[in-house]
């Protein structure tokens, strides 16, 4: 600023008379204005470049921290965290306008990283249930009801009719429990565009388990009696 003030062309109290001296003063004043504009632009350019460098350092630190957490704690594959060619093209286009454009792009990237950091700092989203585990919560209670009914019938049935009741319940009640579980799963989780996985094998095993337990119990009771 001192050099600019020292080298500036002094203002004339009155316009000089037309001639070579007046032309010289006009040219010198124009050159001084150009020099001032170039000096100001250079200062703004350097300030923007310095600020962009600081923003880049902050953004890199945030992204490295988030990448480590996503890959380590949440199990996101590292290949999905790498920028694609389309991302690189967009970034190159955003910084093509010079340091000022690069600074604006980095500030936007920092705001995006701050938002992502806030989301990561919150409670981790619960992982969805696997279909077989979810369906087991439906088939299981129906299977327990089948087991309770079979035990109750065994206790109240006359001695000679145990085999008939066991055969009747062993054939009908597991089918009823499986059908009720199948319908309940479709009612609760169905209705969307995709078909719900009812895991019939898991349902069949769960509904037939009471029959096997009842047969084992009857066999052991007959063996000890």
Describe the 3D structure:
- The protein is mainly alpha-helical and 225 residues long.
- It folds into two domains: 120 residues; 94 residues, no CATH class.
- Helices cover 76% and strands 0% of the residues.
- The chain contains seven helices and no strands.
- Helix 5 packs parallel to helix 7.
- The radius of gyration is 41 Å and the shape is rod-shaped.
- Keywords: Membrane, Transmembrane, Transmembrane helix.
Strand composition percent: under 5%
Gyration radius over CA? 41 Å
- Total helix count? 7
How many domains would you count in the coordinates?
Answer: 2
Query: What's the pLDDT, averaged over the residues?
Result: 76
Count the beta strands: 0
- Unreliable residue runs: 1-6
Coarse morphology? rod-shaped
Helical fraction equals over 70%
Order of helices and strands: HHHHHHH
> What is the CA–CA distance across the termini?
112 Å
Q: Characterize the biggest β-sheet.
A: none
């Amino acid at each position: 600023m001192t050099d600019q003030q020292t080298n500036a062309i002094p203002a004339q109290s009155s316009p000089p008379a037309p001639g070579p001296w007046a032309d010289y003063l006009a040219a010198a004043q124009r050159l001084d204005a150009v020099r001032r504009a170039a000096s100001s632009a250079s200062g703004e350019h350097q300030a923007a470049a310095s600020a962009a460098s600081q923003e880049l350092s902050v953004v890199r630190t945030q992204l490295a921290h988030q990448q480590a957490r996503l890959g380590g704690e949440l199990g996101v594959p590292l290949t999905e965290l790498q920028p694609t060619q389309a991302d690189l093209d967009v970034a190159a286009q955003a910084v093509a306008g010079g340091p000022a454009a690069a600074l604006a792009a980095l500030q936007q990237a920092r705001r995006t990283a701050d938002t992502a950091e806030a989301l990561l700092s919150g409670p981790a989203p619960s992982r969805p249930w696997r279909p077989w585990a979810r369906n087991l919560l439906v088939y299981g209670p129906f299977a327990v009801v089948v087991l309770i009914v079979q035990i109750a019938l065994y206790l109240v049935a006359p001695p000679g009719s145990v085999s008939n009741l066991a055969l009747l319940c062993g054939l009908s009640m597991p089918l009823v429990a499986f059908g009720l579980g199948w319908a309940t799963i479709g009612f609760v989780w169905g209705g969307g565009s995709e078909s719900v996985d009812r895991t019939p094998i898991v349902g069949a095993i769960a509904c037939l388990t009471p029959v096997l337990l009842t047969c084992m119990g009857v066999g052991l009771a007959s063996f000890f009696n």
